[in-house]
Specification:
The protein is an alpha/beta fold and about 120 residues long. It has 6 helices and 5 strands.
């Protein structure tokens, strides 16, 4: 299972993006199922609303919700990362927790954001 991060979704959504084209090919070659999280959906929908772009394709993607187990792990990830002197954005901790709790790989180009999380497998 692969969870697609917001940065990859944005590239895929931009029909002129070579990065998005490459991401789609990579996902297709993987043979894995892929999802987005409710957090990613929020982030990208906000951007689409802000820039007045349609969102009908995005709404067709399978979405994994945010559970209380995800909330507990996200708080732990954020706290532990900050305890080591590194900053982890709250939304990134939430997305990472969902991926970890679903034994999923996270497909992101923002590897630096997630590199402090040893439990998280990146795609």
């Amino acid at each position: 299972m692969i969870i697609i991060d917001s940065d990859i979704l944005i590239e895929i959504y931009d029909k002129r993006s070579k990065v998005g084209e490459a991401a789609l090919r990579r996902l297709a070659r993987s043979g894995d199922t892929f999802y987005i999280t409710a957090i990613n959906l929020h982030e990208v929908l906000y951007g689409l609303l802000k820039y007045a772009k349609p969102s009908e394709y995005l709404m067709q993607l399978p979405v994994i919700g945010y559970s209380k187990e995800d909330a507990a792990l996200a708080a732990e990830l954020e706290f532990n990362t900050e305890s080591k002197g590194r900053k982890l954005a709250r939304t990134d901790s939430m997305i990472a927790a969902i991926a970890i709790n679903h034994n999923a790989k996270l497909y992101t180009n923002n590897r630096k954001h997630f590199s402090a999380l040893g439990k998280l497998e990146l795609f």
